[in-house]
Amino acid sequence: MNYGLLVRPRGLVEADSPHDWFKKMRKNAPISFDPERNCWDVFCYEDVQMVLQNFKLFSSKRNGNVQTLLDLDPPTHRRYRNLISKAFIPRTIQELEPRITAITHELLAPQQGKRKIDIVAEIANPLPVTVISEMLGVPSDDRKILKEWSDILVGGTQNVSPNVMYKLFAKQEKAMVDLQRYFKRKITKRHINETNNIISTLMQAEVDGDKLSMDELLSFCFLLLVAGNETTTHLISNTMLTLFEQPDILNLLYSDHSLIPAAIDEVLRYRSPFQGMNRFVTEDMELKGMNLKKGQEVMAWIGSANRDENVFDKPDVFDINRSPNHSLSFGAGVHYCLGSQLAKLEAKICIAEMLKALPNMKLDTSKQLRMISSTFVYGYKELPVILGSE
Are 374 and 128 a contacting pair, CB within 8 Å? Predict the structure, then answer.
């Protein structure tokens, strides 16, 4: 089973930002092989984009009990995506704006009058969990355990000992089985067809008379929960951290909320929630002088591509006026993220409402920020903030 790259490459230190390592690798070894992982690491924008787009040479197929949209190649992928896209048309996503705003208000109300809060725990974490749970028809009492399963599935380790890896795989296998059982019970309940949620929408969806099977519905529930939840949580917190590092820009956004979408787009490039996506070589081939073998894994480092000096001017500078800004944070080609507009909408609403409700926010620098334990997800366990003036 492979939900992503679970073992960190040599040179990538868990406690630090990966960008210094990315810069060194782009310069010295833009395509390199790690024998411990039997994996090729690709760092430059052009190569990362090619790996993500060329499904004939770099397949998304991986072994596992659940095949999600991320694990499929065309033409199967095309059929599946056409069905699922019914639930993600722009009008449907835009109709969620009032509810996302209301949930954000509910989360912000208890923060009024406090001197310090943790943006991750109080806002960035519960918002997407609540939104996605409501989309899936999940009751509020079940959201905590769904978040726990999601966190387990994106976890990683830098320890390559067989015992540690076995325990990690076993824990993830159990979380996956628990998720499958949970959603299967929900889907098979008679009232699901009478409920206004995304599962009932997908159960009704047809393309040329074709419907989703039970296994496909289950895999979609897994994908939406894990990918949507993690992406949005870290997009919100990464945006706020970056703004705290750039107080002039933060003050600008306080006075002009219309700049928030541009700031989010630049955070997606500058501090992408997903740093990498893996593929598998379909045939022996040569890539810029390197001999790749059929079946080997390839990690396309999105976080590195987004700071490629050959594509982005002053890539280590956070610039909300950057144009064009063609980051690869939501992937490329047939696997471009279906939920990208939902994630950006949630982040835009959340940040705008925080700026309205919480004036004079600043980072609590007395506490050391801790990154989450994941190889390919970039985010922080907490984001402590001081409210008002001290």
Answer: no
How big is the chain, counted in residues? 390
Element spanning 368, H or E: none
Helix (H, G, I), strand (E, B) or coil at 168: helix
Residue that the structure tokens 């966190």 belong to: 151
176: part of which helix (H) or strand (E)? helix 162-188
Place of tokens 């590092």: 245
- Band (264; pLDDT cuts 50, 70, 90): very high
pLDDT tens string 340-390: 999 999 999 999 999 999 988 999 999 889 988 777 889 999 999 999 755
- H helix count then E strand count, the chain: 16, 10
Query: Nearest 5 degrees, angle CA 151-CA 378-CA 259?
Result: 115
Rounded Cα distance, 367 and 380, in Å? 12
Give residue-wise pLDDT tens across range 83-117: 777 778 888 889 999 999 999 999 999 998 899 99
CATH classification of 19-386, choosing from 1.10.630.10, 3.40.50.300, 3.90.226.10, 1.20.1250.20? 1.10.630.10
Q: What is the pLDDT of residues 332-347, one digit of tens each?
A: 988 888 889 999 999 9
- Of 96-105, 200-209, 279-288, which gets the smallest average pLDDT? 200-209
| C-alpha dist (Å) from residue 331 to 18, 300, 328 | 19, 10, 5
User: What is the rounded CA–CA span in Å between residue 220 and residue 222?
Assistant: 5
Percent of the chain scored above 90 by pLDDT? 52
Q: Are 238 and 271 in contact (CB under 8 A)?
A: yes
| Alpha-carbon gap, residue 35 to 222, rounded angstroms | 31
Hey, what amino acid is at 140? S
**Confidence (pTM):** 0.88
Could you count the other beta carbons within 10 Å of the beta carbon of residue 243? 25
Whole-angstrom distance, CA of residue 269 vs CA of residue 204 = 37
Among the listed residues 238, 242, 234, the one whose alpha carbon sits nearest the alpha carbon of residue 319:
242
Nearest of 300, 226, 247, 239 to residue 269 by alpha carbon: 239
